[in-house]
TrEMBL record:
Keywords from the named record: Membrane, Transmembrane, Transmembrane helix
NCBIfam families: PRK11689.1
Transmembrane segments: 12-33, 39-61, 73-96, 102-122, 129-147, 167-185, 197-217, 248-268, 280-299, 305-324
Name listed for the protein in its UniProt record: Drug/metabolite DMT transporter permease
SUPFAM superfamilies associated with the record: Multidrug resistance efflux transporter EmrE
Length: 327
């Protein structure tokens, strides 16, 4: 009996470790997506990443039969999932600079705070919303500090920076809100069905449609002032030849980004099923800081002290929410 219990504990610990690998992989996501967007443009880059990611998931994490999936979950959950992934991928590529893409990634990491607020609002538990507000204030202050740069907690400077290029910030916030809604309402709809491997191809199709439409209407979108120029002139007429002409390093970055995103979902799903969800949830609150650190390394950025402080505040806001909700 003791031997059997020991094996179960070891198995659970191993599964938890696999689940926590998702945090490491997702921390690499923003920096890698930015690098791909700089090589292939803000619309084509994400489309390539999610095409590769969808293939990887269908090979290594095949979905259960579609007949087992609740229709309500497929429609509502699928719509929210596609909107979130599309919004986040495009927002990073549309950032004016690499440094701004890191700011936008922190806006995305408001989703745990928004999730707690939303869950509290629909729970009807006494004082649930009041317990969620302090963490929300701390996390929001962290975003303001990061976006405001060296000016610190200055609403005016932060607002000016956002107004200079509002679309990626709006996409990131809308995506964060959509993911918080997804996290709160879909578990009861899913009835144990995980549609990630089904939703990824839908994200891919959406991104390709966006790329084709923008190529036809506007002749392509770079989305970054510091891009190297590769891929900006890609159009439907010369797309195949242009893609073939890209350096091997650019394609390797596409693969790495796809592995980071799709592999993260695969690891997280395995950890949820076989490991400790509570341990993984607590560890996930370090993601904003890890993501900022990884992006700084990948994009060769020297981030200011206020920016790092803002990232810590975003993570601290999520932790504060978790602690207060456990009371």
């Amino acid at each position: 009996m003791k031997l059997e219990l020991g094996k179960k504990r070891n198995s659970s610990a191993a599964a938890t470790a696999v689940g926590m690998m998702a945090i490491v992989l997702w921390s690499l996501m923003m920096g890698l997506v930015r690098l791909v967007s700089e090589s292939f443009s803000a619309t084509l880059g994400p489309a390539l990443i999610y095409t590769c990611g969808a293939i990887l998931l269908l090979i290594f994490r095949r979905p259960k039969p579609l007949s087992q999936a609740p229709r309500k979950y497929l429609l509502i959950g699928g719509g929210l999932f596609v909107f979130y992934e599309t919004s986040i991928a495009l927002s990073v590529g549309l950032a004016a600079t690499s440094a701004q893409s890191v700011e936008i990634s922190l806006v995305n990491y408001l989703w745990p705070t928004l999730m707690v607020l939303l869950a509290a609002a629909v729970s009807h538990r006494k004082h649930a919303v009041a317990y969620a507000i302090p963490g929300a204030i701390v996390a929001t202050a962290g975003v303001i500090v990061s976006v405001g740069g060296n000016s610190g907690l200055d609403w005016h400077v932060a607002a000016h920076n956002v107004a200079s290029n509002p679309l990626p910030y709006l996409l990131a916030f809308a995506g964060a809100f959509a993911w918080s809604v997804y996290a709160v309402i879909t578990p009861s709809m899913a009835k144990g069905y995980d549609g990630t491997s089904l939703f990824f191809p839908l994200v891919t199709c959406t991104l390709w449609v966006i790329h084709i439409v923008t190529s036809v209407v506007g002749g392509g979108t770079s989305g970054s002032d510091d891009a190297n120029g590769a891929g900006i002139s890609a159009t439907l007429g010369n797309l195949g030849g242009w893609i073939a002409a890209q350096p091997v390093s650019a394609w390797l970055t596409v693969v790495f980004a796809a592995v980071a995103i799709a592999g993260g979902y695969a690891c997280w799903g395995y950890g949820i099923l076989h490991g400790s969800m509570e341990t993984m949830a607590v560890a996930s609150y370090a993601t904003p800081v890890l993501s900022v650190g990884a992006s700084a390394l990948l994009l060769h950025l020297s981030l200011s002290l206020p920016f790092w402080f803002g990232a810590l505040l975003v993570a601290a806001g999520s932790v504060l929410n978790w602690l207060l909700q456990k009371r």
